[in-house]
Structure formats: C-alpha cells, structure tokens
Amino acid sequence: TIMEEASKELVQFLQLSTRFEVKLQAIQNVLAITGSPEGRKLIFDNTQLLESILALTKDTHHTVVNEAYLTLVNLSTDGRAVAALLKKYDILPEFLKIICDSESPYSDKACGILNNLTRELEGAKLVAAKLNDIYPDAPKTVKLSKLLEIFCKVDYNKKCSLDYLAALFSNLSQLPEVRQYLLKQSSSSIKALLPFLTYKRSLKRRGGVAATIRNCCFVYESHDWILGEEIDLLPHLLLPLAGSEEFDDDDNDKLPLDLQYLPPDKEREEDPDIRIILIEAITLLCATKSGRAYVKDKNTYVIMRELYRWESDNNNDDVADVCERLVQILISDEPDEGRENLLTCPIPDE
C-alpha cells in the first residue's frame, strides 16, 4: 500500500545523522499516524521504523527526542506493544534509568509508557520480573524501593512530576508478589504512600496511590497489621470521604482522632472514581471478623451514612451503590461460624 511504501521511505529520514529539520518533520509525521490502530500496526509491522523511533530517544535535539517519546506513548497503548517493547527490545532498563534521573526532562513520558505497558497482567509480570527486590535473581537494574523513594520525594525531578509512577505502582500491585513486597512489615512501604491520599496537587497521584492501597487490602492476612498502630490505615481512607457534617459528642468520641470535629470547610475527595476505590478498600478491610469489628468500632458507619446521603443528593449513583454495600456490612449481624472471612467463604449460587 501507499502507507507501507511511505513508512519504508520515512526510515531514511529518521536516522540520528539526518539533518535536524528533515528529521523533525519525519518524526512528526510518524507521531501523527500513531493516533490510529492502522498507523500503529504499520509501525509494529516495520521493524526498521520502530527501531528508528527508539533510536531517536537518544537524539541530540530536545524537540526530536520529545516527539519520539510521544510516539512511543501512543504506541504503548497498543496490544502489540508489550511483545515488541518489553520482550523484543527490552526498553525497561533504559527507561527505568531515565525515570530515576532527577535531571531528565523525559521521566514523565517514560513513566507514562511503562504505565501503559503494565495495565494488563502480562506486561506487569514482565516489569516486576526485572525488579531486583521483587525477584532477587533479577538483573540489578533497579529496585521497586528506589521507585517508591523517588516518588515520595516531591520535586525529586524539577522538570517532571513523576505522578504517573502512582499508576505504575497500581498496575504492578495486581501481582501477589508486589502486594507482599509493599506489605512487608520491615520496610513499611505502604506507610510512605499514605500522605498522597490527600495530595491536592495531583489527581493522578491520589488515584494511583488509592488503587495501590486498595489492591493491598486483598491480602487479608495483613489486615490486623495495616489497621494497627504502626500503619493505622483506616483514618487515611476515611478522611478523604468525610465532609463538614457535624456529629454529637458521643459520635465524635468514637471516631478516629483525625476525624473528630472536622472544620466547617472540610471538603471530600472531588473525584468519584477515587471515592469508589477508597470505599472498596474499607469494604475489603471488613472481610475478616477482626477487621469488621475494628472498622465498626471506629464509628465508620456515621461517615458512610453521611457520604451515602451526600452522594445520593448529588446523583452520584455509582458511588452511592458502593457506599450502600459497605453500610450493609457495617449494620449487619456477624455471619455464621465458618463463614467469617468474606474473601474466602464460598458464594451461594442463588
């Protein structure tokens, strides 16, 4: 086809040695076709073209490098990207280096690309397999602890926010081995993430961290520890869900300290998807008998009751439904003996 011919011709203009203006025009043309599935297929079918794009991430001209990264961001949303970028060309070591380079203007693009590539389980597994603290026999490229450390240092990179790392953590925490790592009591990795649940500067950060913590809540064996004094997770999940409603002294005294007597201008988390994730996390913490007892004892019910009313008044039906399910657990009697763990007990067919 004409497109295939054109793409073969483009390769000669996408060399590091090509004159700047010609090279920039060529990579901009390539970027333009990555917006469509046909365009992306064309690139994945043309090895030389894909290799030229990857090579241009090391060009000496910032504008060319930037366009090359944008092209890869679009390509990484495609189903064929995992096999090409993670398996065949193994971009991970290089991209992790860029993410960890506090001077790099391309760290956010590299984060975005890895985020896209780890959405599905296959990509997440390929990336986790290269992280030395998840798999000790992995090459010593970089550790998950290093990524967590630079993420928690706000303004680590003056040119990039690294907010997309939150989504990468969320994708990686689909894997049991990553959840186990985050929940290791010796490292308290999960504790370092908690302040970002109320981080005003970035919705991406709040959402990714909320999803990571929610995924960790599937590990019911760790519930007593994450609800205990050392991590004290419950108030961190409840605070973004609380509004400015006033409670009587009796109700206030039963709430966790951080939720007592909130100011009249207290606002809830603005994003409905994040509110759903936070409610889901609390619901998961109610899976075990001891977890339910603790969540009920902390008067979670009054926060959820007010949230349910507020969501209903604002026609946020999706959030109200998730909220209602949690309220049901909080006001119900304990399940029968042998069915106390809601994550492991069999669900009847009816």
From TrEMBL:
Q: Which residues form the Protein HGH1 C-terminal domain?
A: 281-337
InterPro entries attached here?
Answer: ARM-like (IPR011989), ARM-type_fold (IPR016024), Hgh1 (IPR039717), Protein_HGH1_C (IPR007206), Protein_HGH1_N (IPR007205)
Domain of life where this protein originates: Eukaryota
- Domain Protein HGH1 N-terminal, chain residue ranges per copy: 99-275
Similarity section: Belongs to the HGH1 family.
Name of the protein described by the UniProt record: Protein HGH1 homolog
